[in-house]
Amino acid sequence: MPSRLPVTLRATSDLSPFPQAHRPRQPLLASDDLVGAWNDYFRHAGEPPRHPGARDFMHADLRAALARLVSSDARVLEVGCGRGDLVASLPNAAKMGIDALPECVSEARLAHPDVRFEEADILEMSRPPSDVSTRWDAIICDRLAHSVLDIKTLFENLRHQLAEGGRLYLTAFNYLWENPTRLAELAGWKRPAPTANWLSDSDFRNLFDIAGLEVVKYEDRLMLPLHVPGLGPILNRYLVRVPPLHTLSLYRIYVLRAATRLPVPRKVSVSVVVPARNEAGNIQAAIDRTPVMGSGTEIIFIEGHSSDGTWPAIQKAIADYRGPLKLSAYQQTGKGKGDAVRLGFEKATGDLLMILDADLTVPPEDLPSFYDVVARGQADYVQGTRLVYPMEAGAMRFFNKIGNVAFSQLFTYLLQQPIKDTLCGTKVLWRRDYERIAANRSYFGDFDPFGDFDLIFGAARLNLKIAEIPVRYRDRVYGQTNISRWKHGALLLRMSLIAARKLKFV
Fold first, then answer.
1. Do domains 39-258 and 269-504 have the same CATH topology?
2. In which order are the strands placed within the sheet that holds 116-119?
3. What digits encode the pLDDT tens for the residues 269-285?
4. For 375, which of 31, 48, 81, 265 could close a Cys bridge (C-beta 3.0–4.6 Å)?
5. How many CB atoms neighbour CB 138 within 10 A?
6. Is the pLDDT of residue 395 over 90?
């Protein structure tokens, strides 16, 4: 699985997704010797070092991490695949590897005849494929940035190969390991490598920004790249993810997406699901105040065993309505908001799914802001945060607010994306992403009666870009909260432990 320094692209008869750039390749001049040295290094990459334990341990760790991070239904491309062991290890049905060295491609084809391998130079792929169906849902680039002469062009060309919603999985050594690596080479524990690029996190993020990429999340991997019973798991699974010890990790996996910023939001259909239990006094206002968004908007009320006449209020409001919204309503057979949301999403017909709490403490008039962020491509999953603006008196009880703040800090750490308000009911995501979350729900289990963490955890596992929009949280004008602060606080703590076990310390 070593990284590769691309050389000139050699044409192949069946490489239509990877056309050569229509420009002459500039001579490398003084860098020619470095190119030759790296190519010679990779031609002999199959030769084991004197002590291959650390190399093999890291390779096994990387294979396990990517098998978890890359969606199993993704079409996968590995760039600089070498002998193809990494991409071949993934369970995905559609996968391919490319490498600039013909010797490596030949060996990969022999070793893994069930995987497609082609000879191609990523530095020559300066234009996106004209056929979008030939782009990739997941691209793996394992340590390639350490050896190429032009990292900016590497990142730009990788972005060109991503399908809409695709993810780039980029691995890189921690620059603090440069000197230990050199010492290992001097001691004969590692095969000497040519002069390499050693970049800090800030270096990488600057290049990502220039190339039109943004970090969704990252994982720091391995403090001890050897099998040491007892000590190894403690260091490599737990302490490596605890600040500031994470700075000692051997390597990092960046999960990246194209930084999309459309000038005008796409016109898509919208489904607004409104879970309603004992909210009879808010039904008409929810209809009156919800704007039409995109190419059309529907409101789906899900009534949940109310005792105040909520179901008759919904039926009357729908019967009396004569406006542009499409209205429908269903009654739960199960219990809890999470069950209501799942039923509503099952009945929804829109491309974009929204949740609006029937208490209207988050104003329906704010929903177009959520629509714009997702429809412009700025994020894949958007939720509200009530903890930025000052709240109306009585909108949130003191201990509820303290609990929200504490859990927001915890979940920002666990998910590696900023989550300030875990329990704000307003959430927006694409239908296609929700269907993938639902299909992978068994990974976490059915543990969330609210539905909030089911979606947040699912979005994090699918490497969706999460964003929060500040909302002004109002006091209720009707009814009482359905949240029990102490009982549900204990449940949230249990959810945090599940997230730690399933998302962070893996």
1. no
2. 116-119, 95-99, 76-79, 136-142, 162-173, 251-258, 213-221
3. 999 999 999 999 999 99
4. 265
5. 26
6. no
Sign of the torsion angle spanned by Cα atoms 227, 55, 222, 498:
negative
Beta strands 162-173 and 213-221, pairing class: unpaired
Per-residue pLDDT band at 105 (split at 50, 70, 90):
very high
Q: Which residue has the tokens 């996106």?
A: 128
pLDDT at 399 over 70: no
List Cβ<8 Å contacts ≥24 apart for 394-400: 394/475, 395/361, 395/473, 395/474, 395/475, 395/476, 396/473, 397/485, 399/485, 400/483, 400/485
What gap in Å lies between CA 437 and CA 6, rounded to an integer? 37
- 125 and 157 Cβ atoms separated by less than 8 Å: yes
- In the 8-state DSSP scheme, what is residue 44? T
Range of lowest pLDDT (3-7, 231-235, 333-337): 3-7
For the stretch 376-388, pLDDT in tens is 999 999 999 887 7
Radius of gyration from C-alpha coordinates of the chain: 26
Query: pLDDT tens-digit profile of 21-52?
Result: 333 333 333 467 888 888 888 888 777 777 78
Q: Which CATH number fits domain 269-504: 1.20.1600.10, 3.90.550.10, 3.20.20.70, 3.40.50.720?
A: 3.90.550.10
Alpha-carbon distance values, 477 to 175, 287, 357, 365 (Å)? 56, 16, 13, 16
- Half-sphere exposure for 405 (CA within 13 Å, toward CB): 9
Q: Rounded to whole angstroms, how far apart are CA atoms 149 and 45?
A: 19
- Sequence ranges of the domains in the chain: 39-258, 269-504
Taking Cα atoms as reference points, which of 290, 431, 427, 267 lies closest to residue 350?
431
My answer on whether omega of the bond before 244 falls inside 30° of 0, hence cis, is yes
Residue 171 identity: T
Beta carbons of 454 and 338 less than 8 angstroms apart = yes
Q: Does pTM surpass 0.70? A: yes
Task: Record the tokens describing residue 298, joined without a space.
Answer: 């529907």
Cα 422 to Cα 384: distance, rounded to the nearest angstrom: 9
DSSP of 260-317, one letter per residue? ---SS----EEEEEEEESS-GGGHHHHHHHPPP-TTEEEEEEEE-S-SSSHHHHHHHH
Residue that wins the pLDDT comparison between 449 and 428: 428
Bigger pLDDT: 12 or 329? 329
Count of alpha carbons within 13 angstroms of residue 266, beta-carbon side: 14
d(CA 279, CA 478): 7
| CATH superfamily, with its number, for domain 39-258 | Vaccinia Virus protein VP39 (3.40.50.150)
pLDDT band at 103 (very low <50, low <70, confident <90, very high): very high
CA-wise closest residue to 411 among 387, 375, 392: 387
